[in-house]
Automatic annotation (TrEMBL), chain A:
Domain of life, source organism: Eukaryota
Assigned protein family: Belongs to the URM1 family.
Entry GO CC: cytosol
Protein name: Ubiquitin-related modifier 1 homolog
Role summary: Acts as a sulfur carrier required for 2-thiolation of mcm(5)S(2)U at tRNA wobble positions of cytosolic tRNA(Lys), tRNA(Glu) and tRNA(Gln). Serves as sulfur donor in tRNA 2-thiolation reaction by being thiocarboxylated (-COSH) at its C-terminus by the MOCS3/UBA4 homolog. The sulfur is then transferred to tRNA to form 2-thiolation of mcm(5)S(2)U. Also acts as a ubiquitin-like protein (UBL) that is covalently conjugated via an isopeptide bond to lysine residues of target proteins.
GO biological process: protein urmylation; tRNA thio-modification; tRNA wobble uridine modification
Glycyl lysine isopeptide (Gly-Lys) (interchain with K-? in acceptor proteins) cross-link, renumbered residues: 119
Main location: cytoplasm
Native source species: Porphyra umbilicalis (Purple laver)
1-thioglycine, modified sites: 119
UniProt keyword list: Cytoplasm, Isopeptide bond, tRNA processing, Ubl conjugation pathway
Automatic annotation (TrEMBL), chain B:
PANTHER family found in the cross-reference section: ADENYLYLTRANSFERASE AND SULFURTRANSFERASE MOCS3 (PTHR10953:SF102), UBIQUITIN-ACTIVATING ENZYME E1 (PTHR10953)
Protein's UniProt name: Rhodanese domain-containing protein
Family matches, as Pfam families: Rhodanese, ThiF
Listed Gene3D superfamilies: NAD(P)-binding Rossmann-like Domain (3.40.50.720), Rhodanese-like domain (3.40.250.10)
Signal peptide location: none
SMART domains (alphabetical): RHOD
Any one GO BP annotation for this protein: protein urmylation
Lineage of source species: Eukaryota, Rhodophyta, Bangiophyceae, Bangiales, Bangiaceae
Length: 119, 540
């Protein structure tokens, strides 16, 4: 379980009922739970949980946090987010952190910011 | 031992005549050649500032700035840049874009008595009134608003005449066009945006110094930009396409015209655009260093100066983005990625080498090849789509619901998202319908359904109309249909048959609703042009 804070801005907060900050408890990645099913002999040492990554968070947010217009956040087929959303990990562009593969730690703040074009 | 006091001095002459009468030199004998006495007085409070001072004032006063868009961002940006004493301030907007009453709550360079005046002209009047030392000119903004004019200069040729460009426009197509023009023309770009209570600001095409983008330590190792085999670039000179290679779906783009905006929000961002432009312009060329990136703009294009401003205490907001949350009163500045190795316009692998011939409006609608895209005939027929795109037209063309602030619907990139084309028999002219509606017989025979968002309906509505926002309209058709055949409000002996007439703000969403109603067997009709065409209905 990884506890991260998710920020929504630039209008994306409207997809989550107007909330700008949502605390998310990210379940362990599937790869972590799938390990250790071997039988017999001494029980295997508990597997080191695979760290959750931002890609997991996006899928989780789309499925569990977004309440409407899910494709305005990310399409189901897409690994990332829709064009025009800036993703920040602790206020740093996620391109500097490995995008969807960036590992998450407890307390991280991941921001999803829709770029604005009005004036 | 006491020092005797100095004898009292004569009062200094306060006027030129006085100094001449005393045989003293004129006032300009005391100031640098390019900082005349009137500038010393006018700019004294910024000249006194150690990080600014006379050197930067002289650089600013000999520089040229272009502001594109004379609205909520462009007004404060122009007023502050002009007041600070930029040498030449050029103002561009779409030809024919005039000051409207709905602009005045935020576009503070315009006045009530200049409603109807071209915005660039109106703003030029305001800047000249503040500072007659600035050379203020109005330039034709057609080249930045969509199409090329046959024989006209390209956007990159136009911007190349300036030392900085401020993007104060309000739509996606113009923003990508201006970005490309500034990259190709070798001009730094101060890009601001605001909708609702949110604002964003960054400086593109300007070399960020190491100081500018010092990263906070994180647990994750830095990884090169993914998705490319090209080597990372040394340049920190990023452009809009480096950060957002693909434009957002039109349905996810909010505009001030449809989503609303609190006036001070673009005001804050526009003022900060002026500040960033002053920092860029006040970097004297003598101390500017050339960047080391072999991938920088086209050969022969002079490169903007790099991080010299930072070295002297003024740090340009390059490769960083400022986010303003006006609802919470919070500013955040975030670090952006470095230049994208495969950027379509600023990398060695560029595919965009000129803005000429690129249909940015079509591209912003998700249709890269304009020739293969069906023209929005139905929209054009209503006169909504002029040759010059504006944000409302983009929204209209996308068929996006006129939803509340910045919200998104899920119909991106589909030409089918255009409002359906209805046969003429299904459509009524607003003026003729309004005349019959306000008769007892007409009102009784009509169920007028207003499909605008609830917030707009609460703002102003036709008496007797009912509000069913278009998002939920299809589901509500069966219930509405029961009212057509003489519901409880039909009254004893009243005509049992009522006609469903659907109206929206501009006559686009009403067509979507009519199609839905007809699909459910209700012979609804809609109002051409919507409430915007309704005689006497308040404009908003
Ligand atoms: Zn670029």
């Amino acid at each position: 379980m990884t506890r991260v804070t998710v920020r929504f801005a630039g209008g994306l907060e409207l997809l989550v009922g107007g909330r700008k900050r949502v605390d998310v408890h990210l379940p362990p990645a599937p790869s972590a739970t799938a390990v250790g099913v071997g039988g017999g002999g001494a029980p295997p040492p508990p597997p080191a949980p695979a760290p959750a990554v931002v890609g997991d968070l996006i899928a989780h947010v789309r499925a569990e946090v977004i309440t409407e217009r899910h494709d305005a956040f990310a399409t189901a087929a897409d690994a990332g987010v829709r064009p025009g959303i800036l993703v920040l990990i602790n206020d740093v562009d996620w391109e500097l952190e490995g995008t969807t593969a960036a590992a998450l730690a407890d307390g991280d703040v991941v921001s999803f910011i829709s770029t604005l074009h009005g004036g | 031992m006491m020092v005797p006091p100095d004898p009292p001095l004569a009062a200094p002459p306060s006027a030129a005549n006085g100094s001449l009468a005393l045989g003293l030199p004129p006032a300009d004998a005391y100031t640098p050649a390019n900082l005349p006495p009137e500038s010393i007085s006018r700019y004294s409070r910024q000249l006194l500032l150690p990080v600014f001072g006379p050197t930067r004032q002289i650089a600013l006063s000999s520089s040229r700035a272009l502001i594109i868009g004379c609205g909520g961002l462009g007004c404060p940006a122009a007023l502050y840049l002009g007041a600070a004493g930029v040498g030449h301030l050029a103002l561009a907007d779409r030809p024919g874009d005039v000051v409207e009453v709905t602009n005045l709550h935020r576009q503070v360079g315009h006045t009530t008595d200049r409603v109807g005046v071209e915005k660039a002209e109106s703003l030029a009047i305001a800047v000249r009134a503040i500072n007659p030392l600035v050379n203020v000119t109005v330039v034709d903004g057609s080249a930045f608003a969509g199409g090329d004019r046959p024989g006209g200069a390209t956007a990159e040729a136009l911007v190349a005449a300036y030392d900085v460009v401020l993007d104060c426009t309000d739509n996606v197509a113009a923003r990508y066009l201006i970005n490309d023009a500034c990259v190709l023309g070798g001009v730094p770009l101060v890009a601001g945006a605001a909708v609702g209570t949110d604002g964003q600001l960054t400086v593109y095409n300007w070399e960020a110094s190491a100081v500018d983008v010092a990263r906070p330590p994180t647990g994750s190792p830095a990884t090169p930009v993914v998705g490319t085999l090209l080597p990372p670039r040394k340049s920190s000179r990023v452009c809009l396409r480096c950060v957002f290679p693909v434009p957002p779906p039109p349905s996810c783009v909010g505009s001030c015209d449809t989503a609303g905006v609190l006036g001070p929000v673009p005001g804050v961002i526009g003022v900060l655009q002026a500040l960033e432009a002053i920092k860029v312009l006040a970097t004297p060329a003598a101390v500017a260093a050339a960047p080391d990136d072999p991938a920088a703009p086209a050969p022969g294009v002079p490169l903007p100066p790099s991080g010299a401003a930072a070295a002297a205490g003024l740090t340009v907001l390059a490769r960083r983005m400022l986010l303003f949350d006006g609802a919470d009163g919070a500013f955040t500045t975030v670090t952006l990625r470095p230049a994208r190795p495969d950027c379509a316009v600023c990398s060695p692998a560029r595919t965009v080498t000129s803005t000429a011939g690129v249909d940015y409006a079509a591209w912003a609608r998700g249709k890269p090849r304009a020739a293969t895209a069906a023209p929005p005939v139905a929209v054009a027929a209503e006169g909504a789509a002029a040759a010059v795109p504006r944000s409302t037209d983009v929204d209209t063309a996308s068929g996006a619901p006129a939803a509340p602030a910045g919200s998104c619907s899920v119909v991106p990139f589909q030409p089918s998202a255009l409002p359906p084309h209805l046969p003429p028999a299904w459509r009524l002219p607003a003026d003729a319908f309004a005349a019959t509606y306000f008769t007892p017989a007409g009102a009784a025979a009509t169920l007028l359904v207003d499909v605008r968002p609830a917030a707009q309906y609460q703002l102003c509505a036709v008496p007797g109309s009912v509000n069913v926002p278009v998002d939920g309209f299809a589901a509500a058709v069966p219930d509405l249909a029961t009212r057509l055949i003489g519901g409880k409000d039909a009254g004893e002996g009243a005509a049992a048959i009522r006609r469903m007439v659907i109206v929206c703000r501009r006559g686009n969403q009403s067509r979507v609703a009519v199609a839905a109603a007809r699909g459910a067997g209700v012979e609804a009709v809609d109002i051409i042009g919507g409430l915007a065409a309704w005689p006497g209905f308040p404009a908003y």
